[in-house]
Amino acid sequence: MYQAGGTIRSLLDKVAEQEYLLPAIQREFVWRPEQICRLFDSLLQGYPFGTFLFWKIKPENRDSYQFYQFMQHYHERDNYHCENVTQLPEREFIAVLDGQQRITALNIGLRGSFAWKLTGKWWSNDDAFPVRRLHLNLLSQPDLETGSMYDFEFLTDDKASLDASEQYWFRVGRIMEEEEDALIDEVADDARLTTDQRKEARSTLRHLYRTIHDKDKISFYEESDQSLERVLNIFIRMNSGGTTLSYSDLLLSIAVAQWSSLDAREEIHVLVDEMNCVGDGFNVSKDLVLKAGLMLSDIGSVGFKVENFNKENMAILEENWTPIREALLLSMQLLASFGFNAQNLRATSAILPLAYYLYHRKLTASYLSRVEYAVDRECIRNWLIRSLLKASGIWGSGLDTLLTMLRSDIKQSGDTGFPLAKIEATMQQRGKSLRFDPEEISELAQLDYGNPRTFALLTLLFPGFDFSRHFHVDHIYPKGLFTRNKLAKVGVPAEQLDELIEASNKLPNLQLLEGTINNQKRQKMPHEWYAQQWPDVNARQAHLQSQAITSLPEELNQFMDFYRERQETLLARIRTALQPASSVETE
Fold first, then answer.
1. Are 289 and 352 in contact (CB under 8 A)?
2. Residue 21 main-chain phi, psi, to 5 deg
3. From CA 23, how far away is CA 85, in angstroms rounded?
4. How many CB atoms lie within 10 A of CB 554?
5. Distance in angstroms (rounded) separating the CA atoms of residues 256 and 264
6. Distances from the Cα of 556 to the Cαs of 447, 479, 491, 549, in angstroms?
7. Tell me, what's the pLDDT at 237?
C-alpha cells in the first residue's frame, strides 16, 4: 500500500541524516544537467512526481549488505561514484530502491553542485570542470516549444551574478539555508528590478520555496521483508527510469560492492573487453564473467541466486580474481585456436567448463602449443564441437545444474586430463546426451551456409587447419553461379532449378577456405580454380581428397551428381567423428 511521505525538504533532511541510503543495487547517477532542470520545472508546474520504493532495513541485517550515500557534489572526472557508508546507523533505516535518480537530482539541485567537462579543454585541466549550482531565473517566461514554464539552469557563481534585463538568477539551494521572509525581502529591496519585476520575482520565489518546504510531494511503497531475493524482483518490476535492469545486473552490483581492494566493476568490464578482443573477436557478456566467477571460485551452485553473493563468497572471488581472469583469457585463446569467434560460437556458456578445467589444473599459455597437451586439446575440441552440434541445444535449459555437476566431475577427475567419459556420462544423466541418432546425422549433413553449426562441423570433419590464418566457410561451386538465368542457360530443366539453388547453399557444397584465398576465388568454376591453385596434378588430387571431393564436374548442370557423391562421403565422416566418448582415445 502506498503511503504519503511528506515534503521534499523532509526527504532531503533524511538523506542528509543517513536515514535514507542507497543499497548495493544502485545505479550510477546518469542524469544530465538538463534532466535535473526539467525535473524542477515539472515540480513547480505541479506535475506528478512519481512514487518511490523503499526497503526498510532492520538493525540485525544492516551488516549483510553494502550501502552508499546519495551523491551531492557531482564531478564528471573526480567524483562520479557514490561514497561508501563506513559506519551504518544503529537503527532501522531505509534503502531506496526506486527513485534513486530523482532523489539524487533533488540533492544535487538543492544542496549540491554539478561539474561537467567543457568542450575543447583537456581532461587533465581542472579549469575544464567549472563547478555549477542550480539557479532559477525568477523572471522566467514560458517556453512554448519545450513546454517549460520555469527557467532553471546550472551556472557558475560568476555567470549567475551578471546583470541582464530579462534574467534574475537565484541560487535554488538558498531555500534550504535561509528563511522564506528574508529571501522575499531581499528580492523586494533589489533596486535593479522594476516594480512589476519585483512582484513577479517574489511570486516565483515564494512558489519555489513552498513547493519544496510545504507541499506533500512524496508518496512511497515500503517493503519490510528482509529477503533480498524478493526485493530484487520487486525492484525489477517497479524500476522505471533509464535502461532496463536485469536480475543479473542487480546481482553484479551487489557483488562488486563487496570487494575491498579491487575496483570490481572496472575489473569485470575490462576483462569482458579483453575476452572479446581475442582472435577474430567474441561476444561474451558481463553475465558470463559473473557466472564464471561463481563456477571457478567453487561457490555453491553457479546460479544467479542472492545467497551466492554474500560477503564471504565475494571475498573468495576477489581473492582468486587474478587466476580466474587468467583462466578465462586462456579459454578464449583456446577457443580461437579452434577457429571459433563471435559469428560461429553458438553458446558462450560452453566456455565455462573449459575455464574451470584450465583453472583447476593451473594451466598456462604453454597449454596452447606444447606437444604433450596435444591429445588433451583435441579431446576438448572434439567434446566442445559435439556439444555445439546438438540441434536441441546442450547449453540451454537446466544450465546451472549441468555446470555445477560438470564442475564436480572436473574437480574429482580432472587432475591429469580432461575427464571426457565422466563428463559425457553426467551430461547423459541430465538429458544432454552427445550421442547422435541417424536423423540427427542426416540433418547435420544438410546444414546451411550461415548456420553457426556449419563451421563447427567442418572443423570436426576436416581437422588440422591453422586458424590463425582466418578460415571461413566457402562455397565450392560459387553461390553466384546459381541464379535461375545462369542455370537455365546451361540446360538445367525448369523443374530442377529450385533444387539446385537450395542445394548450392548446403554442407556438401561447402568447405573451409582461408580468407585471402576466398577473395581470389570469386565466380570461377571449381575445376578451373583448383587447377590454378595446385598446378601439380598429384598435389591437387591430394588436397581434393583431403576435403572429401572425389570429382569436380566441369558443367554446372552436373552439379547434383557432385552434391550427392560428396553428401554420402560426408555422412560417413560425420558418423565416424560423432562416435560415443567411450571409443574416443583420451590417454
1. no
2. -130, 170
3. 10
4. 10
5. 5
6. 21, 12, 9, 16
7. 63
Contact 7, 217 (CB under 8 A): yes
Q: What is the chain's length?
A: 587
The count of other CB atoms within 10 Å of the CB of residue 438 is: 9
Report how far residue 505's alpha carbon sits from residue 475's, in angstroms, rounded to the nearest whole number. 7
Residues 362, 380: Cα–Cα separation, whole Å: 16
For 556-579, the three-class secondary structure string (H helix, E strand, C coil) is: HHHHHHHHHHHHHHHHHHHHHHCC
Instruction: State the Cα–Cα distance between residues 524 and 365, nearest whole angstrom.
Output: 42
* Dist. CA 450–CA 447, nearest whole Å: 9
Separation CA 534–CA 190 (nearest Å): 94
- CA-CA distance, 316 to 7, in Å (whole number)? 44
For residues 429 and 332, the answer to whether their CB atoms sit within 8 Å is no
- What is 433-466 written as a DSSP string? -----HHHHHHHTTPBTT-HHHHHHHHHHS----
pLDDT at 48: 84
Q: What's 304-344 look like in SS3?
A: CCHHHHCHHHHHHHHHCHHHHHHHHHHHHHHHHHCCCCCCC
In angstroms, the Cα distances linking 155 to 87, 107, 147, 158 are 34, 16, 22, 8
Neighbours of 117 (CB within 10 A): 15
Enumerate the domain spans of the chain.
Answer: 1-244, 246-434, 443-577
How far is residue 216's CA from residue 212's CA, in Å, rounded to a whole number? 9
Determine phi and psi for 252, rounding to 5 degrees.
-60, -40
- Residue 242: predicted pLDDT: 44
Residues of the chain with pLDDT under 70: 1, 26-27, 64, 228-229, 233, 235-248, 257, 515-522, 580-587
Confidence at residue 520, expressed as pLDDT on a 0 to 100 scale: 55
CA pair distance 317, 51, nearest whole angstrom:
37
Strands 20-23 and 169-171: unpaired
Report CA-CA distances (Å) from 451 to 345, 436, 490: 11, 18, 30
Distances (CA, A) of 501 to 494, 560, 561, 571: 12, 10, 14, 21
* Grid cell in block for residue 440: 540427427
